[in-house]
Design a protein that fits this description.
single chain, 172 residues, alpha+beta, Nucleoside Triphosphate Pyrophosphohydrolase, seven-stranded mixed β-sheet, 3 helices
Length: 172
């Protein structure tokens, strides 16, 4: 691949999510690329028997409601497991044993966001925590086999959910 050298970085927008423009030398050419600086996140595959718990919520960027695994940003001072426990309690009202499954970049072509994915088992119902302002969540329990079919037929279109469900279905 050769040596990559950063020439400069310019902040374009700074907020909860920031945007910067990087200039770098790649294979002898100067490249400019906008990068979304996004906090790392967590995703959870909550399991009850042969079922998984999914959430449906409206996503403005997609302009529709999507069926997804529970997920969210890691807040300042949290480690991934703490964030996963908090998100699971807030979004679906469960606590349980969290075991790391994998981690991956959600959109490495333009975003720094690294998602840490956990499998949650031994679930116990608790009161749901407060939702974020943009969350209007419907909870659904689905047999894993059916969820995988929904990934394959395009009913589940969220990439983190497709990846997490397939990874979980292949784990021991």
């Amino acid at each position: 691949m050769g040596k990559i050298r950063v020439i400069g970085t310019k902040s374009i927008y700074s907020g909860g999510i920031s945007l910067r423009r990087d200039r770098f030398l790649l294979a002898g050419r100067i490249i400019e690329k906008e990068i979304v600086e996004h906090p790392d996140s967590v995703g959870i595959v909550p399991v009850i028997g042969s079922d998984v718990i999914l959430v449906t919520q409206y996503r403005r960027a997609a302009a529709k409601a999507l069926l997804e695994i529970p997920a969210g940003k890691i807040e300042k001072g949290e480690i991934p497991r703490q964030a996963a426990a908090r998100e699971m309690e807030e979004e679906i009202g469960y606590r349980g044993k969290l075991v790391p499954l994998s981690k991956w970049y959600l959109a490495p072509g333009y975003s720094t966001e690294l998602m840490h994915v956990f499998v949650a088992t031994g679930l116990k119902k608790v009161a749901r925590g407060p939702l974020d302002d943009d969350e209007n969540i419907k909870i659904t329990q689905v047999e894993l086999r059916i969820a995988i079919e929904k990934c394959l037929n395009g009913e589940i279109q969220d990439s983190k959910t497709v990846s997490a469900l397939f990874a979980y279905s292949q784990s021991d």
